[in-house]
Amino acid sequence: xxxxxxxxxxxKKLVPQIECVFELSGQKILSLxxxxxxxxGTPVFTVKGKYASRGWTEWTQGxxxxxxxxxxxxxxxxxxxxxxxxxxxxRMASHVSHxxxxxxGFNNVSTYGNxxxxxREGKISPNADAQDFYELALKVSGAVQAARWTKLADGTGFIxxxxxxxSLFVDTIRSCRSLAVAHQLGHVLMGEQDEKISLLQRLVxxxxxxxxxxxxYGQGRxxxxxxxxxxxxxxxxxASGVYRCPNSQQGxxxxxxxxxxxxxxxxxxxxxxxxxxxxxxxxAADFKPAGGVAEYSRVLTNAATAxxxxxLENSCxxxxxxxxxxxxxxxxxxxxxxxxxxxxxxxxEPVDGSAAAIAAQGLIRLGNYLNASGDKKAAAxxxxxxxxxxxxxxSEPYLSTDPKHQGLLLHSVYHRPNGWDYxxxxxxxxxxxxxxxxxxxxxxxxxxxxxxxxxxxxxTFFGGVEN
Length: 467
What we know:
By secondary structure, this protein is mainly alpha-helical.
């Protein structure tokens, strides 16, 4: 196992680093808030340390305002609550009703969801009208996401990506938190002839099909079937509902593993296991496509542990992965590069710090889930690995300490195949830049660990939602 796992590391030992993270985080949020002007577009990633926009799909605005809400949660400074709340009210309504994306869990649970959670936890003053507003936004968001439905030949289906009805993205498993929250709030999707469509059943079917088509288990599915690797996109014939092939939009190839896609699965499945354990608003029909709750739990656990093991085996010693496990110039790196700390300034292929931040949270959540299930040995491995990766990211060269740089987590990669990432003079690959999703997930990771160290309520996306 290439990752060096510190078995003695605890959340409390990371608190000094986390305090530094949030001190820097506050500076970055205020800098971005001061510099962004109306009409500039959604900040996506940095160029020369300044946040820029990149039109592809509107999926990062929620991370901008959600980051301010996480900052408030961590340090209690109401300036950040105001930034997050005002930004949500003024800028996020179009995201609630956005029918063209699969990113509702990113945009809307990060904003309206965090506001509802904070209110339910008593961290912000109760306000019945505001609570109704947040709940309505989350209900609509979950239903709109669920309506992006492609039906398969076996009668189940999936939430299709912005590419169209043929396209299943591995990313979406984490964005399915929108369906989970809306379901817990008692909402359904209304269809033709007033059909009441269960959001939980659509979530279950999407999770099953992502596990089936986007994740590999070493069972001979194709020549490149290695347990735990993921395909960014699964392609279907939308007319017949038959699976055709793997594909990749942001990775190197369909037969290598884009590590941020891997991280989305590694984070998304443990979160859905946590949700399943807490879910009381359910019926047998919701889990019929899976063969029952027990079988559904088994499939989710298998997907989570397979992706976790693959991540641990294919990341550098400090827990940071290369951007893709089959990137074409990896062979030019030292033969034992994976057994050493990552080098974001190497000349051949970029690392992806954002993938590490997402994966670290998934590893911790998976460890916590397995611990509660009684599998103490596996739980310790994953949990300690997550804490070890977090420690790497909470310090240089991944933590951005330059006050002139608006990003918080450095060495994030957006779209390597399209060449969208900035390459500085004198460098041959992207490095030194940040992304909205990377910064948000570093804050969410830090808050998850900090709240445990403080003995606060466990941080979940469905936290504060009454069953």
